[in-house]
Give the backbone structure.
Amino acid sequence: MKHLKVWQKLALMGAIFMAPFAVVTYKMTSSINALGVESARMEVQGLAYYAPAVALVKDLQLHRDIAHAWLTGDASFKDALTAKRTEIDNDITALDAVDERLNGLLHTSERWATVRTACNDILNKTPASRQNRASPATRESSTRSSRSWRKWVMRRISRSIPTSAESA
């Protein structure tokens, strides 16, 4: 050290102090890149839920409208209501299959069970017998319950969709 010039001593001290910063910066950058790639991979896998979930929501909306029409006295909707219930059951089965396949990665079974229960409750609350239709009280009740079902399902669905803060 005695034989080094001042600028060489300063350069050596700068190199020694920069080495730990370089290591920390490298590790931080590589962890951010790995996290970003993993997050993107999970997002892509989560898209498997998209098609069956959208189909379920559309079928639930149609079921609500068909049930309302049938409950207010239009008997021509009875077969359509039965068919729509079958489609909803098929949508639920499709989402069950996706959830079974992806639960290990995305941990969605608990949330999906809540939404599935809500969907089944909606289907079970729709009266299937003819004597429950056509009275004015039933029409008013159907209109109110149709609105409340929609609000209730939307609340359940919005609670079950993870926010970016929950995902991190």
User: Anything to note?
Assistant: Residues 43 and 162 are 12 Å apart (CA to CA).
